Amino acid sequence: MGRALRVLWQGSGDSRPVEGTGWMRAGIWGLAIPAAGLGLAFGPLETILDLPAPETAGTVAIVLGLVAALVGLALGWLVPVQRLLGPAHQWAESGLEVAGGLTAWIGRPAMAVARGCDRLEDHLYAAALAIGHTALSIARGGERLEQRLYLAVLGVGRANLAVGRWVRSGDERGIDGLIFALVAGVRDLGARARTLQSGLIHHSLAISAVATAVLLAILFSASLSV
């Protein structure tokens, strides 16, 4: 705190003009004045709001704390920081790191875990992408197989329909024609049989008539001779 006050009061020796310094000072004073005012008004505010009073430390503790604060401010104001810290100055400038500090104990492990998670995410993404491509290929293969099966079933159906039509045509033209021809032949054969049978009957009747006439003639001749 003393070192900071000295730098603020005297400057660091290599300061350069910065634009907007007035605005920054106005902002700092705008924060400092209300903070100081609230600090002074804290006691009356406690009384007005009837807040419980904080436990006060002993006089010795207060005096020792005040002395330590004044000594620290004096050392920071009067003694340069390199001389005050001595060999620990470089360590203090590096942030009081121990064996690499937060970078070695937290930052690097966290980065290693992050890189591992990143690689794992990449592997998972690649695996999911491969599974998606495989599923898409299987779906496309299934679709092509379904189309081929559909075409095969359609071809078999068309072939069966053609065979049915051919069988029907054969039934109508072949078997029906044969049946009709057989019926016509049977009818013709019956007609011829009836014609033949009628001719034979007439022939038999003629023979019978001739034989009867001859027999009657013989009998008549015999009766005349007697």
UniProtKB/TrEMBL annotation:
Keywords: Membrane, Transmembrane, Transmembrane helix. The keyword Membrane applies. This is Uncharacterized protein. The chain crosses the membrane at residues 26-45, 57-79, 200-224. It comes from the Bacteria.
